[in-house]
Amino acid sequence: MTGAATSAGASGVEGAAELVARRRVVACVGPGGVGKTTLAAALALGAARRGRRALVVTVDPARRLADALGLPALDDQPRRVPVSGAAGALWALMLDSRRTYDALVARLAPNADTRARIHANPIYQRISRALAGSVEYAAMLKVFELQSRADLDLVVVDTPPSAHALDFLDAPARLLRLLDSPALQWLVNPALRAGRLGWRWFRRGGQQVLRALERVTGLAFLEDLSEFLLAFEGMSGGFRQRARAVQQLLFGPDCAFVLASGPGELAAAQARDFLARLEERGAHPQGVVLNRLRTLPGPGGLAEAAEGAKSADAARAALRDAFAARFGAEFPADEAAAASLRLWRNAAEAAAQDAAAAAPLLADAERLGAFARRIPEFAADVHDLAGLAIVEQHLFADRESQNRHAGGGAGNGAGGASGGREAGQPG
Amino acid sequence: MVVTGKGGAGKTTLAAALGRAAAARGLRALVVETGRDEHLPRLFGWQGQPAGHAGLELPGGPRLMHLSPHEALAEYLRFELRVPLAATRRLTGGPMRALLAAAPGWRELITLGKLWHLERQRGAAGLDLIILDAPATGHGLAFLDAPRAATSALRGGPLRRHAEWVEALVCDAERTLLLPVALPEETPVRETEALVRRARGELGIAVDRVVANAVEADPFPPGLADLDERLAALPQSLSGAPSPRDMARCAAHLRQRRAAQAERLAALANATALPLLQLPRLPQAVRGPEGLDRLAAPLLAEPQPWPQA
Question: B306 CB contacts (<8 Å, ≥6 apart)?
């Protein structure tokens, strides 16, 4: 936290620009499929343009960020993304959970022998190689490592698309619970003893539960496990310390959450569920972004569409006459008028629905003092820097533009520059 | 039948619609969801008790189940491995939960194990078809890969043997079909291509079609494909009608979206060499049997090969 940070807007709400100026970590959270990766990349891009040395981390093996940044491939080393005219710098990396674990083991292992034994252990190999659930651990470790780097000001992290949106946040706590759990102690102590004396010898002692466990998993597994735990014994302190530090970072003043949601009730409900769980942990999002909302172009927007529906006959007649006057008698003016109005009504209905689904989240944002931004649906996917720049401009606009109808309207392609320009203009 | 795809692609809705479609054909189907919260009953417009792990038979079908990995684990230990009750309780209760919560992969394995068990008993249980709404996973096929992961980590014992059985079920084209569902957007399409390739190649899982969900309908009537341009050529404002310019922008947006989607779908069809089943983007959130039936109807249609360009 620096005193030199930009002051918050007149409303007292910290906008995206203040967020990226003041925090060290920004986590994009929310349900799957709402465009978190794009938003994370756009936030990092905005930070870079504002003088920060920003890194965006994607933990999604789907390589989406690579697409969005126009990079052919990402790996677990930061890659510089060329951004013309940026005062800061933009970096991107994709998490490789196995390498992250390997690096941590290498750092914490007391000697080369322990490191080699852990790396060769079948259980460790399974845990570290993208078995469902282990990615979250790796993500949290990587973010922690990165945010302490002196050559970076900001890490924006795109959270893993897990079944449980909070797996990412819970990973440190879960690791701590595991390390402190009586079950592990109970399992580790005999395993450690067994590891030294030989599991076969130990099992004669015959604890019922261990016998049951052995029946489930087979003797070899318990041998592997005891070897793993034995090798791990000297390192658990390091893991524990790190997990605690990550938790403090995530829920401390240096980290902000940006909650992303998409169009439709389902995404909004999932996002609100996520928000409730954040609040349970005494945290809340500093920003709420509603992505890909269907909107109507034009200043009249929804109100005009509703007005138009009331006098549909008059509207149809007016349009028909205009079509006929412009294109002559050969043109099916009446059909075109009807189709135009149908299309407009459907678009208005869709926009009204997305607005209604978004309303509770916007109210949440207001209640929490978080900034809220609505980003319109684009005709094409955001897949390059130009597209990202448009999203960035929506995110970083001083206040929401177009009199509460998000963005530059439905007519903008992601690659078009007009949406970006309009986004910065209020009203 | 395993419905898989990214979060937000509409897996649960598709699984529910498949359940309706199966019931409409007189099949006794069980739709299984596995997430933390239960969504299926609400999708069917069911107001009563939740399905829970024990399941729920909807009037007119299908049957619903909210599979609990913890309960499935307890069942497995108790009845499959004949672990004494006290030990089962210790292995699944309180302190072990923290250990389990941290153990990657067990949920997937036990979920599939439960399905294996259901499949084996389907004669006795009066089931023709099991439809699984697979957990949302960004790790591609980590879910279906869990048995193989277990067999490689375990060198012996009943757990390994059982994991092999489950793997055999997953890889048996006669019994298991993977149904990927994708939104017609660039990245979901690319991910689905990769998923299909890996499922059919490395994992040996059968896939015979891909579902494209939320495909925009053609906003233009036949013969008026240039409606947006025509609208743009009209005077900018008309008394009593919405602004033609705004309508033109709106129409152009829809046309561009549809064209972009068609491009994605063609790429998907070409890359996978599989027929595509297209489901329309419905104007409203699906709730209740009527909404599901609007999706069930196209599901029952024969999938069409994508017309070659």
Answer: B265, B266, B269, B270, B275, B276
State how far the alpha carbon of A192 is from the alpha carbons of A5, A222, A232, B87, in Å. Answer: 52, 11, 10, 21
Cβ within 8 Å, pair B84-A212: yes
- For A250-260, the pLDDT digits (tens) are 899 999 999 99
In this predicted model, what pLDDT tens digit does every residue of B11-25 receive, in sequence order?
Answer: 889 999 999 999 999
A22 in any annotated domain? yes
Question: What distance in Å separates the CA atoms of residue A203 and residue A189, rounded to the nearest whole number?
Answer: 13
Closest-CA distance, B224 to chain A, in angstroms, reads 7
Task: State the Cα–Cα distance between residues A194 and A230, nearest whole angstrom.
Answer: 9
Collapsing DSSP to helix, strand or coil, A80 comes out as strand
B145-169 pLDDT, tens digit each? 888 878 877 777 788 888 999 999 9
The answer on pLDDT for A289 being more than 60 is yes
Does residue A339 belong to the interface with chain B, where contact is any CB pair within 8 Å?
yes
Task: Tell me which of B234, B246, B261 to substitute to probe the interface with A (most A C-beta atoms closer than 10 Å).
Answer: B246
Closest CA of chain B from A269, distance in Å = 12
Q: Does domain B2-220+276-300 sit in CATH 3.40.50.720? A: no
The verdict on a CB contact (< 8 Å) between B260 and A379 is yes
Beta-carbon contacts of residue A82 (< 8 Å; ≥ 6 apart)? none
Say if residue A208 is in the same domain as residue A299.
no
Do A235 and A297 have their domain in common?
no
* Range of the structural domain that residue A320 is part of: 293-423
Examine residue A45 and state whether it is found in any structural domain, yes or no. yes
CATH of the domain at A175: 3.40.50
Of the three residues A250, A266, A283, the one that is the final residue of a domain is A250
Nearest CA in chain B to A322: B234
Q: Do the chains contact at A322 and B98, CB–CB below 8 Å?
A: no
pLDDT at A10 over 50: no
Contact B142 A163 (CB under 8 A): no
Cα B269-B275-B280 angle, rounded to 5 deg: 85
Residue A311 touches partner B, C-beta closer than 8 Å = yes
Residues of chain A with Cβ-Cβ distance to B87 below 8 Å are 208-209, 212
| Minimal Cβ distance to B285: which of A133, A264, A326 | A264
